[in-house]
Each structure stands twice: as C-alpha cells, then as structure tokens.
Amino acid sequence: MDGGIRLDPGGGVSRPSTDRVPLADDRRLHTKALAERDRASYAPDGHRPAEPCQQPTLRGGADDVRRIDLLAVDEVPDGTMKFAWVDGVDAVLVVNVGGRIRAMQGICSHEYFELDKGFLTGDSLTCALHLSRFDLETGDPLDPPAELPLALYPVIVEDGRIFIEIPDGPLPVNA
Ligand code: FES
User: Fold this and answer.
1) Ligand 1 pocket residue status of 144, Cβ below 6 Å
2) Which of 5, 18, 21, 121 could form a disulfide with 30 if both were Cys (CB 3.0 to 4.6 A apart)?
C-alpha cells in the first residue's frame, strides 16, 4: 500500500489517511478520471453547467469534494492564462482558449517551473524551461523531456467565478 488515491471498481475515489504522497500510477489514473469527468460534462459552449457532478460519484457524496474559488472569469481573457493559489501553496494554472476555461497544475511535471511563464500555442501549452508541450485537453506531454501529464481539474463557471472541484485533501499534482 503506497498511500495514494485509488479508484474503486465502481468508479468511486477513496483516499487513505496519509498526507501528500509521491506520484504513482494510481494518482495518474485519478487525474485522468477527473479529466474524463470534466470533458464529459462540458456544454457545447465550453462551460460546465452549474449543477453538481454526477459521474463518477465520489464516495461519501458531496462532503468529500472541495469546491475551490480560483478567479473571476474577467481575470482570464481569451488567449491568456493566470495563476491561482490553492491553500496558499499549490499553484493552479487557469487557461482560457477560445472561451473554454481549463484548470491544471501550475508547476511543470518535469521539474519545478511555473507554467504561467510558458506559451499558449493553439491547443497546447509550452513549458518555457525545456520546451515540452502539453495537450490542454488531456494534460499529456507532447514532447520530451516531460513524461508525466499535467493534472487537470474539473472546472465550474458560475456567477462570473471560476471554481474547481477536487476530492477533499491535497491537490492532486503530478511531479
Ligand atoms: S521544467 Fe517543464 S519541460 Fe522541463
């Protein structure tokens, strides 16, 4: 048992009582599951409806999900990206491309480098340190040297604010 986040066969998420753990395959599965849920729930205009997430159901119901207020929509115009800080320590990069707002880990999965210093190039984000590109839809690295995907977080836009919803506990990050 490595203490990471685990998906149960029913699609739920369980978390042991330990604190942050090193990246493991189960965490990658977890972030991919969140990305899948996020993609499935977007409206055609690129914004998720405001109602709570239905699929997959997180074990324990809404009490185990954190909704985190990141930024105002106006702070991230089309074609830009901006950092928000969760719990004062974890950087989340909010990206607006064509009105589609996404949120992902703000620090590169390759080495510690702030991705808001990178470049938006169509549907990818380029890290400015070693120039790996990441697919904005999946978080997957498109070029070396990065090998791990960026963790993506489900976004909700409501009342002019940008929120993410994550399982209660530390922000999932790939590093
Ligand atoms: S730090 Fe981002 S690619 Fe190396």
Assistant:
1) no
2) 5
Closest to 101 measured CA to CA, from 87, 120, 88: 120
Helix/strand/coil for 64: helix
Q: How many residues appear in the chain? A: 175
Radius of gyration, CA atoms only, the chain: 15
Compute the distance between CA of residue 70 and CA of residue 165 in angstroms, rounded to an integer.
Answer: 11
Given a contact cutoff of 8 angstroms between Cβ atoms, the answer to whether 142 and 17 are in contact is: no
Q: Does residue 120 contact residue 79 with C-beta atoms inside 8 Å? A: yes
Tens of pLDDT, residue by residue over 93-147, are: 999 999 999 999 999 999 999 999 999 988 999 999 999 999 999 999 999 999 9
Which residue segments constitute the domains of the chain, with CATH numbers given? Answer: 6-167 (2.102.10.10)
